[in-house]
Amino acid sequence: MTDNEQTRDDVLVRAMACDKTVRIVIARTTGITEALRKANDAGPLGTIALGRVATAALLMSATLKDRQQVGVQINGDGPLGEVYAIADWTGRVRATVVDPHAQLQDGPATDLARGIGEGSFSVIKGLSEDAPYRGVVPLVTGGVAEDLAHYLLSSEQINSAVAIGELLTAEGVQASGGLFVQAMPGADDAQVSLLVERLETLPPIADCLSGGMTPKMIMDHLSDDSEVVSEGAVEFHCPCTREEFARRLCMLGEDELKKLTEELEVVDTECHFCRSIYSFDREQVNALIYGARMYDLAD
Ligand SMILES: [Zn+2]
């Protein structure tokens, strides 16, 4: 299966309900989570971490303006290490985890909360990876959905119910997805409570999706008057290029690059999002030294 086929059905659907006072966003990310699993050769725990944080970033991307991107970063003290995803306004997402092969010593092998441990949950929003806006809250469970809801309430003052989950088998990712329901200003408390009650009677989101429910069917289950505002394909995509890695090598500076050419025949650099390797041989690194001088001069 090509990546295109894998992500063909992945979708992000935005809707309004309760007389346009409640926002509902649903993401189906089965192909994305499977693509992340394969790219990282991830074990079950690593796959769950990658899929959930990527889904959380995509849900958040539903509120972005043109050209913006949003990062969701989890820094825990568990065996997985940092988990990080970036989604952009077009629905493209990439994600990385420090140890995609992490395993728990005891207990259920797929207990994400223990894989992540205690730490912080951050959201970074803006025009680039060095975005100006960053909100940080302590992790509440490490399960991602509860942490995102906690972040939205305490950092953005938006009351939200969030569900994110996946269905894994030995063959790979069978289903993955998430949703959030957000009360906008002016929302009627009774209507919102009813919607949240219905959400609680819904089977886990991954079961809904693997059972054949479409995002629209899930929305209709939650609300009698949901109206789809937009629906767009989402995909795993890494925008990294060889030029970008060459530029990063230049930024090491002339002395550091000279040291590298003395020690190594070939300098390998790896993109931690898609695990692509970009190799530079001695001649190429020597050429980059001219570029490094420019950076050195700029300092
Ligand atoms: Zn990449």
Explain how this protein is built.
By secondary structure, the chain is an alpha+beta fold. It has two domains: 3-236, Hsp33 domain (3-Layer(bab) Sandwich); 242-298, CBS domain Like. Helix content is 38%, strand content 30%. It has eleven helices and 13 strands. It has helices at 3-7, 30-40, 44-61, 112-116, 145-156, 189-201, 205-210, 215-222, 242-251, 254-263, 282-298; strands at 11-17, 22-28, 69-76, 83-88, 92-97, 119-126, 133-138, 160-169, 172-183, 227-233, 235-236, 266-270, 277-281. A hairpin with a 6-residue loop joins strand 6 and strand 7 (133-138). Helix 2 crosses helix 3 (44-61), helix 9 (242-251) crosses helix 11 (282-298) and helix 10 packs antiparallel against helix 11 (282-298). The longest helix is centred in the first third of the chain and has 18 residues, at 44-61. The protein is elongated. The protein starts with a helix and ends with a helix. Residues 1-7 have low confidence and may be disordered. Bound molecules: zinc ion. Zinc ion binds next to loops.
